[in-house]
Amino acid sequence: MAVHPDLHRSYVRACQSLGRPKNPSIARVLREADKNDKIGCAKGITLKIAGNNHLEPVQRVADDDLQVLVSVLCNTVFVTGLDLRYNTLTDAGAKHVATFLQENSTLRYLNLMFNDIGTSGAELIARALHRNETLAYLRMTGNKIGNKGGMFFASMLQINSTLEKLDLGDCDMGMQYLIATATALTRNKSVKAINLNRPLLYSQEEETTVHIALMLKKNSSLVELHLCKHEMKNLGVERLCEALYENSSLRYLDLSCNKITRDGIKFLAELLKRNQTLEILDLNANRIEDDGAIYLSEALVLNNRTLQALSVVSNNISGKGLAALAGAMKTNMELSYIYIWGNKFDEAACIAFSELIETGRLKPSRTDVEPYEADGQVHLAELSHGLKKHYYWTPSCGEVLNKEANASLAIATVSEH
Q: Which PANTHER family does UniProt cross-reference here (predicted)?
């Protein structure tokens, strides 16, 4: 039987040894971990030392705090996850992270989103992953590592064979990084999910989308792909769809916050008629309008029996298109999650979705609207549900236990750590 560790006592000793003051947030999390019955089992635990905890007073983790923490954790086999999001770690802290990744052999999940790590810190972490053979999930979201920092991660993907999910959204990276990453993923067989959201692109030619499409033709391991805020237009969608006819692995495609219109949706609708693997399609914040919604509905009624979740939030769809989507759900029993808020509801659309919910065809936890009646008319109110509502934030009440409120977690298990 494994010996139960005393993380808090080890932390106090390390602070004294290194001459550093205790960080009360770290101390509290370690005390709680010491009480955890699961700490001695094979499953391991995740230490959640997030700087945006709404339930406890927080002293954010700085570089010196992290130096003490990793000295405690380096030889601790029970800790398999470390959540350090929304703290104040810089490139100096990234150096401690890199050292830890080279010395520790049990950490599988590391969340560094929205710290202050830059290009040199990205280089240190990426180089550490050349040799690390344990880490499966890394979140760098929101660290402004830039195009040069991204290139270090693209190079890492040519060497590392254990990382399964990499999140580099909102990192201020550009065209060079995206093309290099797409090229690396044509040969990388381990990455199952990647987030490439919000690059800084200055070209209107959609070169990056073309390279990503070429990658999808050759890659047979990628399950989840996020391309939010890529300035993608209808030509880019056409190239992606052409590639996905030859791809049989991708299950989750995120095209939210782009410039896709009804003409681009034609290509997606044709793809859905033949594709047998896509389960989640996120078209949030495009402009597909009624015609686009009808194209999707026709594909879902007649051909597709694979798609489980669809988001068309804020797409300038009026009652005609919304009613068509509701009608598709009456025929297609596989489509279980649908998100429609931010469009133009008329009475017919409100009644159509009200009937889906009242008859049990659409569960209230699997959509973002709830019917109510006022002055003898049916209306729809917004619910806080979506494909990835808690991607950036955790509600003030604590972690969300109901995965159905975040459909991507309920369907695509690769989203979890």
A: LEUCINE-RICH REPEAT-CONTAINING PROTEIN 34
**Whether 157 contacts 179, CB under 8 Å:** no
- At position 198, the amino acid (one-letter code) is R
In 232-390, where does DSSP find H-type helix?
A: 234-244, 262-274, 289-302, 319-331, 347-358
Please give the class, per CATH, of domain 260-416: alpha beta
Contact 92, 146 (CB under 8 A): no
Domain spans in the chain, listed from the N-terminal domain onward: 260-416
Q: How many other CB atoms are there within 10 angstroms of residue 303's CB atom?
A: 15
Q: What is the DSSP letter of 4?
A: P
Average pLDDT score over the chain: 92
Least Cα distance to 219 among 253, 184, 195 occurs for 184
CA 110/CA 217 separation, integer angstroms: 30
pLDDT score for 391: 82
Q: How confident is the model at residue 413 (pLDDT cuts 50, 70, 90)?
A: low
CA torsion 383→232→173→125, rounded to 10°?
60
Residue 83 pairs in a beta bridge with 48, 111
CB contact set of 374 (below 8 Å; sequence gap of 6+)? none
Global pTM value:
0.94
> 275: helix, coil or strand?
coil
131/102 Cα distance (integer angstroms): 7
Task: Give the CA distances from residue 203 to residues 231, 239, 364, in Å, rounded to whole numbers and listed in that order.
Answer: 9, 17, 42
